[in-house]
Amino acid sequence: MEVNCAGCAGCCIDWRALAPGDSDHERRGPREPIDDAYNLVPLTRDDVRNFVESGLGDAMTPRLWETDEGVEVDGTTLAAIDGEPAFFVGLRKPPKPVGPFERRPEWLPTCVFLDPTTLQCRIHSSEIYPEECAEYPGHNLALEAETECERVETAFGGERLLEREVPEGLSGLLLGPQAIGQKVFVHPDPDGLEGVIDRLRTGRATDADRAEFVAWAMASAPGTTGHDRRTYERARERVLETTSWVGESIAAWERRAGSEADPAVARELEEARGAPETPGWDE
């Protein structure tokens, strides 16, 4: 699709702190995420597998929802399928010094793969680039839903969505029952989540907490709530053993957050640890 992404990256940054009004489209309806992430991209089961097998299992985090009816864990009633907590898997968003929309750089929650200096994705067009990112905002247009491009236009002006026709060749939207085991996963052991849900809610999730959900997503059987236990055990062990530039840079960004907001620090914190460089907009 033809979109104007230069200097924007609105779909990769939690820019709510810069907006003149409220923008919280993910927290409408009967199910509210227990985390505070904005624009969490739901990864497919294949996306999850690609990240784990590429040694980037520590780049992902789960999302669960609070609702009126479901299964209770840590005092929270979680949305569930057949009594098992339902969840997405998305990409982590550590604080980074970014300056979208021609603003001065500020510390904002930003996708782990976004280069703060160019505001470009470090894995764009690579084999592990998520399906949802590759087709954005096509799915929104197909569903006649507002796009992030339009939200940025409303908040900051300019023209971002340059093409408004639904593109041909979109992958399946994975809505309803067909999403189960492919984009919406379930955790088969609610009792084992005691303490975990509270940490996810308060932003204190551990590597083990995240690995638990990533592994169950990878072990999910498409179209069902079933899992392959051996796949889960192997995936969990592999994720826990992962030490990638992503995980190391997240820890470094979190330590540095609140200091002078200098995007160029990404060369030290990310690229020196092995992060792919981005071409810049001249390319």
TrEMBL record:
Bias (Basic and acidic residues): 255-274
Region (Disordered): 255-283
Domain of life: Archaea
Name this protein carries in UniProt: Uncharacterized protein
Organism in which the protein naturally occurs: Halalkalicoccus paucihalophilus
